[in-house]
């Protein structure tokens, strides 16, 4: 019986590690991650932890001879499990994509894992920079790694290599650095005061005020409002 619980909590720890890795990986693929909500995974994991914890308490009470208390925790555990399954069912009805898988990942192209030469990296980096500065793809709110790779005419894997090894950035941070540069330009312009911060963040490629403020402060050390006041002083 004890081995079952050890195995259960081992799976829980492994699941939390996988979720943590995925949270890092999505920044290598997407420039906007607000739409990727992993809270339901935490709900599932901690729901199972709560249910199993009640079972453990029940087991301890049985071993110590507290049968009536054990019965209470047994009933409580079953009720909690029933509520948990019902909530999962409702979650599935509201967000069926949770259980249907990620179509983008299922259909994305497969590329061989070939390391680029330094000359090829430099060539691809120059193409990337030229594309970013002339076409401004970062203004697209839904821009992802595959989209940008198509614009630069290289494979997503090669683009990821260039970003990670030549520019020392993941896709998310690289795109947002250009968006911050664009927003700084808009905040410094003569027409800046005629636009709200919300309008400027959308025009810069962001779609969340909290993400914009966090990224802006990370790159400049001040909030967008403080930056605009400094430019106007």
- What are the secondary-structure elements, in order, as H or E? HHHHHHHHHHHH
User: What is the count of distinct domains?
Assistant: 2
Number of helices: 12
Class by helix and strand content?
mainly alpha
Indicate the percent of residues in helices.
over 70%
CATH topology of the largest domain: Arc Repressor Mutant, subunit A
Radius of gyration from CA coordinates: 25 Å
Biggest β-sheet description? none
- CATH top level of the largest domain is Mainly Alpha
- The average pLDDT score comes to 83
Low-confidence stretches: 100-112
CATH architecture of the largest domain: Orthogonal Bundle
Strand content: under 5%
Shape: elongated
Give the name of the CATH superfamily of the largest domain. Homeodomain-like
Number of strands: 0
Tell me the distance between the termini: 71 Å
Keywords: DNA-binding, Membrane, Transcription, Transcription regulation, Transmembrane, Transmembrane helix
Protein name: HTH araC/xylS-type domain-containing protein
Domain HTH araC/xylS-type: 126-230
Pfam families: HTH_18 (PF12833)
Descriptive overview:
It is a single chain. This protein has 233 residues and is mainly α. It has 2 domains: 2-104; 118-232, Homeodomain-like (Arc Repressor Mutant, subunit A). It is 72% helix and 0% strand. The protein is built from 12 helices and no strands. Helix 2 (39-63) packs antiparallel against helix 3 (67-94), helix 7 (145-152) packs across helix 8 and helix 9 crosses helix 10 (197-203). The chain crosses the membrane at residues 6-22, 43-65, 71-90. One of its GO terms (molecular function) is DNA-binding transcription factor activity. Residues 126-230 form the HTH araC/xylS-type domain. This is HTH araC/xylS-type domain-containing protein.
């Amino acid at each position: 019986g004890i081995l079952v619980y050890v195995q259960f909590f081992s799976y829980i720890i492994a699941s939390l590690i996988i979720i943590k890795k995925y949270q890092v990986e999505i920044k290598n693929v997407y420039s906007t991650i607000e739409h990727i909500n992993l809270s339901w995974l935490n709900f599932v994991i901690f729901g199972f932890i709560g249910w199993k914890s009640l079972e453990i308490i029940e087991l301890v009470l049985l071993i110590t001879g507290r049968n009536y208390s054990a019965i209470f925790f047994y009933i409580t555990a079953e009720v909690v499990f029933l509520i948990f399954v019902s909530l999962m069912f409702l979650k599935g009805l509201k967000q069926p994509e949770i259980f249907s898988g990620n179509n983008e990942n299922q259909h994305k192209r497969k590329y061989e894992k070939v390391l680029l030469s330094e000359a090829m990296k430099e060539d691809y980096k120059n193409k990337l920079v030229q594309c970013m500065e002339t076409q401004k793809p970062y203004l697209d709110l839904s821009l992802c790694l595959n989209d940008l790779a198509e614009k630069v005419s290289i494979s997503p894997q090669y683009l990821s290599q260039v970003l990670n090894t030549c520019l020392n950035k993941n896709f998310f941070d690289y795109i947002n650095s250009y968006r911050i540069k664009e927003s700084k330009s808009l905040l410094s312009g003569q027409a800046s005061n005629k636009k709200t911060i919300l309008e400027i963040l959308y025009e810069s490629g962001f779609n969340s005020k909290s993400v914009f403020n966090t990224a802006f402060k990370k790159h400049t050390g001040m909030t967008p409002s403080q930056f605009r006041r400094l430019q106007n002083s």
